[in-house]
Every structure is written in structure tokens, then in C-alpha cells.
Amino acid sequence: MSTVLYAAVLVAGGYAGLAGLGDTRPVPFVGGLAALVLLDVAEHRRYPVRTPRGPAVLLLAVRFGLFAMVAAADGAGLSRVLFLLLPFTAYFAFGRLAALSLGLACVGLVVVTFQVTEPRWYDDVEPVSDLLMFAVGLVLTIAMASVAVEEQRSRARLEQSHAQLRAYADRVTELSATAERNRVARDIHDGLGHHLTAIAVLLEKA
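The structure corresponding to this sequence follows.
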């Protein structure tokens, strides 16, 4: 999801800068996006399954700073969708409640930004529409995170079940081998022992 948003923001901001539709500052804009990509790659390599809570808090703070930098340098105004990634990543590390709280904080941040830049933004249909689209994107993002987390849990339960089945299979194999050894020992004791006794008796008679 993050890669798609990074690409969309890069295309929109680059087009706005080249077409002169906004005040896009290319160095912090492209540099911030590149830093976000490197941060994601480093996190996935360091924590391939789940990021621990301590590093997750630090990474959220770093991402917030990079998102703010990219948004300030973006002339297209699309970069605020990057803030949807904050509750998305928070869901994996802290759960649903933290993701919802962070999502509401992001909505509040968008409202405050509109209020600072355009005091009567609520009288204009464009910022109101942007806010509504951001809220819809937030709902979809949290829903996607919920599905992804549930899939991870199901996969972990499935792997645990496979491990238990392998352990049971090894145990059954071990018990089968023990039972076979015991059967052979009984056969030797009952058959060979009887013959040896008979031979001993015959030798004694002879």
C-alpha cells in the first residue's frame, strides 16, 4: 500500500511542478519520498514479521516528520494521503484502538491545516470534499489493515498446526518403531528361545 501511495504522490507532485500548477520544491519532495522508501525497506529487513512496540513508536514519529516535510514541499496537495499510512502501520504494532485514535488525530490535523490556510474552508466545496475523501480513505485503510492482521494471525495458527502435526507424526513414527522392536524381541524370545531349549534338552538326553 505504501509503495502505491508514494508513486501516486510522486507523479502528482512532479506533474504539478512541471506544469507550474503549484509550488513544488523538488529537493525536499523527492528526498522525503526516497527516505520513506528506504525506511520501509530497512524496517521490513530488520523486522520481517512484526515490528516491536518500541521501534514502532520511533518509526511512526520519523514517518510523521517525513510526511510533513513531503506535504510542505508538494504543490499538488495530494501528499496528505500519506498520513493514512500512520494508522495503517500502527494497526500492526498496537492494534485497532491505537489505529483508530491515530486516524482521528490525522483527521483533526487535516482540519487544523485547512483552518490555518483557509479560515472559511468549510464554505468551499473543494476542501470539504478533500476532507470527506480523506475520511473515506481512512476507513478503507483501517479495514485493509484489519484484514491483513487477521491473515497474519491465520497464517501463524496454520504454521503452528503444521508444526504440531509434524511433531505428532514424528511421535507416531517413534512409537511404531518401538512397537516393531518389541514385537521382534517377543518373536525371538518365543521362537528362538523355544528352539534353543528343545536343543538343550535333546543334547542333554544324547
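The CA atoms of residues 117 and 139 lie 25 Å apart.
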